[in-house]
Protein backbone atom coordinates (compact mmCIF):
# COMPACT_ATOMS: atom_id res chain seq x y z
CA UNK A 1 0.00 0.00 0.00
CA UNK A 2 1.16 3.57 -0.74
CA UNK A 3 2.59 5.75 2.03
CA UNK A 4 -0.04 7.90 3.68
CA UNK A 5 -0.09 11.59 4.50
CA UNK A 6 -0.56 13.12 7.93
CA UNK A 7 -2.53 16.17 8.97
CA UNK A 8 -2.91 17.98 12.28
CA UNK A 9 -5.77 20.34 12.80
CA UNK A 10 -9.03 21.12 14.55
CA UNK A 11 -12.04 18.93 13.86
CA UNK A 12 -14.98 20.89 12.46
CA UNK A 13 -18.58 19.92 11.66
CA UNK A 14 -19.47 18.17 8.38
CA UNK A 15 -16.17 16.28 8.19
CA UNK A 16 -13.77 19.24 7.87
CA UNK A 17 -10.37 19.75 9.50
CA UNK A 18 -9.10 23.30 10.10
CA UNK A 19 -5.36 23.39 9.37
CA UNK A 20 -2.66 26.00 8.77
CA UNK A 21 -3.48 25.93 5.05
CA UNK A 22 -7.24 26.25 5.53
CA UNK A 23 -10.19 23.86 5.75
CA UNK A 24 -9.62 20.32 4.46
CA UNK A 25 -12.48 17.93 3.72
CA UNK A 26 -11.98 14.55 5.42
CA UNK A 27 -13.62 11.76 3.46
CA UNK A 28 -13.60 8.03 4.14
CA UNK A 29 -13.76 7.35 0.39
CA UNK A 30 -10.60 6.34 -1.50
CA UNK A 31 -9.51 8.83 -4.14
CA UNK A 32 -10.26 6.52 -7.09
CA UNK A 33 -13.95 6.06 -6.28
CA UNK A 34 -16.27 7.99 -8.60
CA UNK A 35 -18.42 9.38 -5.80
CA UNK A 36 -18.59 12.93 -4.51
CA UNK A 37 -16.11 13.01 -1.59
CA UNK A 38 -18.73 14.82 0.50
CA UNK A 39 -20.90 11.69 0.40
CA UNK A 40 -18.32 9.89 2.52
CA UNK A 41 -17.49 12.75 4.88
CA UNK A 42 -15.69 11.41 7.95
CA UNK A 43 -18.16 11.28 10.86
CA UNK A 44 -16.93 13.11 13.94
CA UNK A 45 -18.41 12.51 17.37
CA UNK A 46 -19.99 15.62 18.83
CA UNK A 47 -17.70 15.51 21.85
CA UNK A 48 -14.63 15.61 19.53
CA UNK A 49 -15.66 18.76 17.63
CA UNK A 50 -13.20 21.58 18.24
CA UNK A 51 -10.46 19.21 19.41
CA UNK A 52 -7.01 18.89 17.84
CA UNK A 53 -6.63 15.63 15.93
CA UNK A 54 -3.93 13.66 14.17
CA UNK A 55 -5.37 12.33 10.90
CA UNK A 56 -3.94 9.95 8.30
CA UNK A 57 -4.98 9.48 4.66
CA UNK A 58 -4.18 10.68 1.12
CA UNK A 59 -4.16 14.43 0.49
CA UNK A 60 -5.20 15.74 -2.93
CA UNK A 61 -5.69 19.51 -2.97
CA UNK A 62 -8.22 20.35 -0.27
CA UNK A 63 -9.56 16.79 0.02
CA UNK A 64 -8.12 14.14 2.36
CA UNK A 65 -9.12 10.71 1.03
CA UNK A 66 -9.29 7.45 3.04
CA UNK A 67 -9.13 9.67 6.12
CA UNK A 68 -9.03 8.16 9.56
CA UNK A 69 -8.45 9.82 12.91
CA UNK A 70 -5.34 8.25 14.40
CA UNK A 71 -5.53 10.13 17.68
CA UNK A 72 -7.52 12.85 19.40
CA UNK A 73 -4.89 14.89 21.19
CA UNK A 74 -5.45 15.83 24.80
CA UNK A 75 -6.55 19.41 25.49
CA UNK A 76 -3.10 20.23 26.87
CA UNK A 77 -1.13 18.64 24.02
CA UNK A 78 -3.37 20.18 21.36
CA UNK A 79 -3.09 23.62 22.93
CA UNK A 80 0.72 23.29 23.20
CA UNK A 81 1.11 22.34 19.52
CA UNK A 82 -1.15 25.19 18.42
CA UNK A 83 0.77 27.68 20.62
CA UNK A 84 4.16 26.55 19.29
CA UNK A 85 2.85 26.95 15.75
CA UNK A 86 1.45 30.42 16.46
CA UNK A 87 4.80 31.56 17.92
CA UNK A 88 6.65 30.26 14.86
CA UNK A 89 8.74 27.83 16.91
CA UNK A 90 7.51 24.92 14.81
CA UNK A 91 4.92 24.68 12.05
CA UNK A 92 2.21 22.06 11.78
CA UNK A 93 3.60 21.29 8.32
CA UNK A 94 7.00 20.44 9.86
CA UNK A 95 5.31 18.16 12.39
CA UNK A 96 3.37 16.42 9.63
CA UNK A 97 6.53 15.95 7.53
CA UNK A 98 8.38 14.50 10.51
CA UNK A 99 5.52 12.08 11.17
CA UNK A 100 5.78 10.87 7.55
CA UNK A 101 9.53 10.37 7.99
CA UNK A 102 9.01 8.40 11.19
CA UNK A 103 6.43 6.22 9.48
CA UNK A 104 8.84 5.37 6.65
CA UNK A 105 11.52 4.46 9.20
CA UNK A 106 9.34 1.87 10.90
CA UNK A 107 10.45 -0.96 8.60
CA UNK A 108 10.43 -3.52 11.40
CA UNK A 109 6.74 -3.13 12.14
CA UNK A 110 4.64 -5.33 9.81
CA UNK A 111 2.04 -3.61 7.67
CA UNK A 112 -1.48 -4.06 8.92
CA UNK A 113 -3.90 -5.82 6.58
CA UNK A 114 -6.69 -3.70 5.15
CA UNK A 115 -10.30 -4.86 5.57
CA UNK A 116 -12.99 -3.31 3.39
CA UNK A 117 -15.99 -3.20 5.71
CA UNK A 118 -19.06 -2.99 3.50
CA UNK A 119 -22.34 -1.67 4.89
CA UNK A 120 -25.04 -3.74 3.23
CA UNK A 121 -27.71 -1.86 1.25
CA UNK A 122 -28.04 1.95 1.41
CA UNK A 123 -30.22 4.66 2.93
CA UNK A 124 -32.59 4.81 -0.04
CA UNK A 125 -32.83 1.01 -0.27
CA UNK A 126 -32.28 -0.14 3.32
CA UNK A 127 -32.86 -3.89 3.01
CA UNK A 128 -34.75 -5.94 5.58
CA UNK A 129 -36.72 -4.31 8.38
CA UNK A 130 -38.08 -5.13 11.82
CA UNK A 131 -41.67 -3.94 11.61
CA UNK A 132 -42.13 -3.52 15.37
CA UNK A 133 -39.13 -1.25 15.88
CA UNK A 134 -38.96 0.11 12.30
CA UNK A 135 -35.21 -0.62 12.39
CA UNK A 136 -33.72 -1.33 8.97
CA UNK A 137 -30.81 -3.55 8.00
CA UNK A 138 -28.88 -0.53 6.70
CA UNK A 139 -29.36 1.58 9.83
CA UNK A 140 -28.36 -1.27 12.13
CA UNK A 141 -25.17 -2.03 10.19
CA UNK A 142 -24.25 1.62 9.59
CA UNK A 143 -24.12 2.11 13.36
CA UNK A 144 -22.42 -1.24 13.89
CA UNK A 145 -19.66 -0.48 11.35
CA UNK A 146 -18.65 2.66 13.24
CA UNK A 147 -18.43 0.68 16.46
CA UNK A 148 -16.38 -2.08 14.83
CA UNK A 149 -13.93 0.46 13.44
CA UNK A 150 -13.27 1.84 16.93
CA UNK A 151 -12.59 -1.62 18.40
CA UNK A 152 -9.94 -2.78 15.92
CA UNK A 153 -6.26 -2.35 16.76
CA UNK A 154 -4.33 -4.91 14.69
CA UNK A 155 -5.85 -4.30 11.26
CA UNK A 156 -6.88 -1.34 9.15
CA UNK A 157 -10.54 -0.86 8.27
CA UNK A 158 -12.14 1.17 5.51
CA UNK A 159 -15.91 1.47 5.47
CA UNK A 160 -17.54 1.15 2.04
CA UNK A 161 -21.00 2.46 1.20
CA UNK A 162 -22.95 1.17 -1.78
CA UNK A 163 -23.70 3.39 -4.76
CA UNK A 164 -25.32 0.62 -6.77
CA UNK A 165 -24.99 -3.12 -6.30
CA UNK A 166 -23.53 -3.46 -9.81
CA UNK A 167 -20.78 -0.93 -9.08
CA UNK A 168 -19.99 -2.22 -5.60
CA UNK A 169 -17.29 -4.80 -6.53
CA UNK A 170 -15.43 -2.22 -8.66
CA UNK A 171 -15.62 0.36 -5.85
CA UNK A 172 -14.16 -2.19 -3.44
CA UNK A 173 -11.46 -3.29 -5.90
CA UNK A 174 -10.39 0.35 -6.36
CA UNK A 175 -9.52 0.40 -2.65
CA UNK A 176 -7.33 -2.71 -3.11
CA UNK A 177 -8.07 -4.26 0.30
CA UNK A 178 -6.60 -7.51 1.59
CA UNK A 179 -10.06 -8.89 2.40
CA UNK A 180 -13.71 -7.89 2.48
CA UNK A 181 -16.39 -8.27 5.18
CA UNK A 182 -19.94 -7.29 4.20
CA UNK A 183 -22.41 -6.54 6.99
CA UNK A 184 -25.97 -7.81 6.54
CA UNK A 185 -28.90 -9.20 8.55
CA UNK A 186 -31.16 -12.07 7.55
CA UNK A 187 -34.95 -11.95 7.21
CA UNK A 188 -37.55 -14.56 6.36
CA UNK A 189 -40.84 -15.14 8.15
CA UNK A 190 -40.43 -13.44 11.53
CA UNK A 191 -39.67 -16.78 13.24
CA UNK A 192 -36.48 -18.04 11.58
CA UNK A 193 -33.45 -17.63 13.83
CA UNK A 194 -29.69 -18.08 13.77
CA UNK A 195 -26.28 -17.07 12.49
CA UNK A 196 -24.59 -17.87 9.19
CA UNK A 197 -21.77 -16.62 6.94
CA UNK A 198 -21.60 -16.74 3.14
CA UNK A 199 -18.53 -17.18 0.92
CA UNK A 200 -17.76 -17.80 -2.77
CA UNK A 201 -17.79 -21.55 -3.35
CA UNK A 202 -14.41 -21.61 -5.15
CA UNK A 203 -12.55 -19.49 -2.61
CA UNK A 204 -10.57 -21.39 0.02
CA UNK A 205 -9.61 -18.15 1.74
CA UNK A 206 -13.24 -17.07 1.69
CA UNK A 207 -14.23 -20.35 3.31
CA UNK A 208 -11.64 -19.92 6.06
CA UNK A 209 -12.80 -16.34 6.62
CA UNK A 210 -16.41 -17.50 6.91
CA UNK A 211 -15.43 -20.14 9.49
CA UNK A 212 -13.57 -17.59 11.62
CA UNK A 213 -16.35 -15.01 11.42
CA UNK A 214 -19.08 -17.54 12.17
CA UNK A 215 -17.24 -18.87 15.22
CA UNK A 216 -16.94 -15.41 16.77
CA UNK A 217 -20.54 -14.41 16.02
CA UNK A 218 -22.02 -17.67 17.29
CA UNK A 219 -19.89 -17.53 20.43
CA UNK A 220 -21.20 -14.06 21.21
CA UNK A 221 -24.82 -14.21 20.10
CA UNK A 222 -25.46 -17.83 21.13
CA UNK A 223 -28.15 -18.13 18.47
CA UNK A 224 -28.60 -21.32 16.40
CA UNK A 225 -25.52 -22.07 14.28
CA UNK A 226 -26.70 -22.18 10.65
CA UNK A 227 -23.18 -22.80 9.37
CA UNK A 228 -21.13 -21.36 6.53
CA UNK A 229 -22.83 -21.30 3.12
CA UNK A 230 -20.96 -21.58 -0.21
CA UNK A 231 -22.50 -19.42 -2.94
CA UNK A 232 -22.13 -19.30 -6.73
CA UNK A 233 -22.23 -16.05 -8.69
CA UNK A 234 -25.90 -16.75 -9.52
CA UNK A 235 -26.95 -17.09 -5.88
CA UNK A 236 -28.21 -14.18 -3.83
CA UNK A 237 -25.13 -12.32 -2.61
CA UNK A 238 -22.94 -14.31 -4.98
CA UNK A 239 -22.26 -11.39 -7.32
CA UNK A 240 -20.32 -9.53 -4.62
CA UNK A 241 -18.55 -12.68 -3.44
CA UNK A 242 -17.48 -13.56 -6.98
CA UNK A 243 -16.32 -10.21 -8.35
CA UNK A 244 -14.24 -8.71 -5.55
CA UNK A 245 -10.56 -9.31 -6.19
CA UNK A 246 -9.90 -9.88 -2.50
CA UNK A 247 -11.53 -12.78 -0.63
CA UNK A 248 -14.95 -11.79 0.63
CA UNK A 249 -17.43 -12.98 3.23
CA UNK A 250 -21.00 -11.87 3.92
CA UNK A 251 -22.14 -11.85 7.56
CA UNK A 252 -25.73 -12.80 8.41
CA UNK A 253 -25.51 -12.78 12.23
CA UNK A 254 -29.25 -12.87 13.02
CA UNK A 255 -32.76 -12.43 11.57
CA UNK A 256 -33.73 -8.79 11.96
CA UNK A 257 -37.43 -9.57 11.42
CA UNK A 258 -37.33 -11.89 14.45
CA UNK A 259 -37.87 -9.77 17.59
CA UNK A 260 -35.96 -12.22 19.78
CA UNK A 261 -32.95 -12.32 17.45
CA UNK A 262 -32.85 -8.54 17.23
CA UNK A 263 -33.17 -8.16 21.01
CA UNK A 264 -30.22 -10.51 21.48
CA UNK A 265 -28.09 -8.53 19.00
CA UNK A 266 -28.89 -5.27 20.79
CA UNK A 267 -27.97 -6.53 24.26
CA UNK A 268 -24.63 -5.82 25.92
CA UNK A 269 -24.10 -2.07 26.02
CA UNK A 270 -26.02 -1.14 22.89
CA UNK A 271 -24.41 -3.72 20.55
CA UNK A 272 -20.88 -2.78 21.60
CA UNK A 273 -20.13 -6.42 22.43
CA UNK A 274 -21.32 -7.51 18.98
CA UNK A 275 -18.86 -4.98 17.54
CA UNK A 276 -16.13 -6.55 19.67
CA UNK A 277 -16.98 -10.00 18.23
CA UNK A 278 -16.65 -8.64 14.69
CA UNK A 279 -13.40 -6.85 15.56
CA UNK A 280 -11.87 -10.04 16.96
CA UNK A 281 -12.91 -11.94 13.83
CA UNK A 282 -11.45 -9.30 11.51
CA UNK A 283 -8.16 -9.25 13.40
CA UNK A 284 -7.95 -13.06 13.28
CA UNK A 285 -8.81 -13.08 9.57
CA UNK A 286 -6.03 -10.53 8.94
CA UNK A 287 -3.54 -13.15 10.14
CA UNK A 288 -4.60 -15.82 7.61
CA UNK A 289 -5.37 -13.99 4.35
List keywords for this structure.
six-stranded mixed sheet, 289 residues, OB fold (Dihydrolipoamide Acetyltransferase, E2P), 2 domains, 8 helices, Aminopeptidase, single chain, 34% helix, alpha/beta, five-stranded mixed barrel
Describe this entry's structure for a reader.
- The chain is an alpha/beta fold.
- It has 2 domains: 5-104, OB fold (Dihydrolipoamide Acetyltransferase, E2P), CATH 2.40.50; 114-285, Aminopeptidase, CATH 3.40.630.
- Helix content is 34%, strand content 26%.
- It contains 8 helices and 13 strands.
- It has helices at residues 75-86, 92-105, 137-151, 168-175, 204-221, 238-243, 259-265, 268-285; strands at residues 5-12, 16-19, 22-26, 52-60, 63-72, 114-119, 129-130, 135-136, 156-161, 179-183, 195-200, 225-231, 248-252.
- The strands form 3 sheets. A 6-stranded mixed beta sheet has the order 9-6-10-13-11-12, sandwiched between helices. Strands 1-2-3-5-4 form a 5-stranded mixed beta barrel.
- Helix 3 (137-151) packs across helix 8 (268-285) and helix 5 runs antiparallel to helix 8.
- The two termini are 16 Å apart.
Strand order of the largest sheet: 9-6-10-13-11-12
Largest beta-sheet characterization? 6 strands, mixed
The residue fraction in helices comes out at 25-40%
Q: How many distinct domains?
A: 2
Separate helix tally:
8
Contiguous low-pLDDT stretches (5 residues minimum) are: none
Q: Compute the number of strand runs.
A: 13
- Class inferred from helices and paired strands: alpha/beta
CATH class annotation of the largest domain = Alpha Beta
Distance between the termini: 16 Å
CATH T-level topology of the largest domain: Aminopeptidase
From the 3D coordinates, which CATH architecture of the largest domain would you assign? 3-Layer(aba) Sandwich
**CA-based gyration radius:** 20 Å
Assess the beta-strand content as a share of residues.
Answer: 25-35%
Shape: elongated
CATH superfamily of the largest domain: Zn-dependent exopeptidases
Question: Strand-and-helix sequence, N→C?
Answer: EEEEEHHEEEHEHEEHEHEHH
Mean pLDDT: 88
Amino acid sequence: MAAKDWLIGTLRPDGYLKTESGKILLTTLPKRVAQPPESGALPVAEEDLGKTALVQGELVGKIFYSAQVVEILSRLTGALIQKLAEKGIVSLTEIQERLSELESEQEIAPLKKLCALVIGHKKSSPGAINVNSNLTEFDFNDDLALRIEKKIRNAEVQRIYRRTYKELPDDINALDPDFVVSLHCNAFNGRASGTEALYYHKSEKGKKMAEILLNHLVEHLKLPDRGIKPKTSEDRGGYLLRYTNAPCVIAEPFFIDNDSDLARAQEDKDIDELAVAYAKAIEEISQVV
